[in-house]
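User: I'm new to structure prediction. If I give you an amino acid sequence, what do you actually give back? Let's try with this one:
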Amino acid sequence: MKSALIIGGTVVAIIAAISLWPETPVAVTTIPVQVGKVESLVSNTRSGTVQACLRSHLSLTQGGQVNQLLVQQGDTVVAGQLLMTLWNDDIKAGIAQAQAQVAIAQSNKASRCRQAEADLRDAKRLRDLRKKNMASEEQLDRSNTVADISRFACEQQDAQIQQVQAALDLQQARLAQTELRAPFAGIIAEVNGEVGEYATPSPPGVATPPAIDLINQECLYVRAPIDEVDAAQVKIGMETRVTLDAFQDQTFTGLVSRIAPYVQDLEKQARTVDVDVTLSSLPQGIDLLIGYSADIEVITASRDNVVRIPTELLLEGNKVLTVQNDAIAEVPLTLGLTNWTWSEVTAGLKAGDAVINSLDIPDLNPGIKVKITPASDSGITKDD
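Assistant: Good question. You get back a string of structure tokens that encode the predicted 3D arrangement of the chain. For your 384 residues, that looks like this:
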């Protein structure tokens, strides 16, 4: 009995000693709240793509045997340059025939009109002679009739020339359908077809490879999808930052140039809106390739010289942990602009206040005793 009482008393004494033992403070690090820039950003939901402002998948309007292939992949061409032709000897023969008919019609006009001028002079002479009673009325009437007929024959040649000229224009239009020309200056990205092969135009609704893929690289833009929820925040002309997988250590700038007037509803994917960003001048030595993957950040709002904290330090309910009286305390905040990196604080903290940034320590709860240890790097600067 005495042994039990002794053991029980010992346990109570141990518990009492533990409860009176000073709590060991947890070592934490803090960073000072500073002032800087905060932006509101809208980012793409899936990778965007670098595209050319001018790109054309060229095809001939009719089928035929390839007679000439005047360019190859990588060639630089100018607007209007001939790229490919089909066999068209029959059409060229038709053009030569039509040109001959035009020449004949023009010659006939010159002959008829010269005759009309001569007949008109004869009629004028007879008119003068008639006034002197040296010619009969019948002769004058016959001469006037001949002059009128000659004049009509001369005028008729104009219509004849127009007719044969139209036939020539038709043959030349047919010839143009056998020739593929560059609609703008650019670089040949792809050529499909060889001399002697039969080229077939793409029928409606059937996708076939283009005869020639032509790209103008002087103007580039990025097209990227953003979530429909964010689309209303984006406006034409907003500044945008662009990053590319091919140049991970660089950031490019641009402006929003187009917002699609409809929402993409793709199966098994979130609904998105395509946004086009025209790139500003690129740094020296940077050559972008069409098809590069790209990400965009549209700056929808920006404020300078505001109180801000790293967004990663925010807890649920827009709270942060601070140290008050050597213990952890939760401080609720009122936020302004925010992004993945920074959050603007409009109430709850001021510049210079210390915020706990060692959130990886488990069980950091309000009321726990802590001691502040120097941080090796705060990770925040005024100009960041």
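You can read the tokens as a compact description of the fold. Here is one thing that stands out. Residues 347 and 377 are 26 Å apart (CA to CA).
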